[in-house]
Amino acid sequence: MKSSSSQSRYVKVYKEGNHIGRKVNLFAFNNYESLVAALSHMFDTTIRLDGDGNSSVSRNHHTLKYLDKDGYWMVAGDISWNNFLSRAQRLSINSPRNP
């Protein structure tokens, strides 16, 4: 996480099967990897990103999706980090059986 930031952009994060979400400040992170590491710890689960920065669909790992400004659910990592910061409205951690 970044040590200090004057900007903030809070979005809700929900894990599939949990009805209670949490808020995270996207500007507190430097990249997808730091966001995924924090969410994995926060929700006590494993979320994978492959080498290209895209969420991997795996039997043992959750995937991260985001609701964009147009109302579509997209796989996190499909656009640059800076573009993601401006487009993401909500995050969803999906179970391995329902990517």
Features:
single chain, 99 residues, alpha+beta, Ubiquitin-like (UB roll), 5-stranded mixed β-sheet, 5 strands
Task: Characterise this structure.
The protein has 99 residues and is of the alpha+beta class. The protein has one domain: Roll (Ubiquitin-like (UB roll)), CATH 3.10.20. It is 18% helix and 23% strand. A five-stranded mixed beta sheet has the order 2-1-5-3-4, with no helix packed on it. Aux/IAA proteins are short-lived transcriptional factors that function as repressors of early auxin response genes at low auxin concentrations.
Count every helix, treating DSSP H or I runs of 4 or more residues as helices.
2
Tell me the major beta sheet: 5 strands, mixed
CATH superfamily: Phosphatidylinositol 3-kinase Catalytic Subunit, Chain A, domain 1
User: Approximately how much beta-strand content do the residues carry?
Assistant: 15-25%
Specify the helix fraction band.
10-25%
The parts where pLDDT drops under 50 for at least 5 residues are 1-5
User: For the CA atoms, what is the radius of gyration?
Assistant: 12 Å
Euclidean distance between termini CA atoms: 26 Å
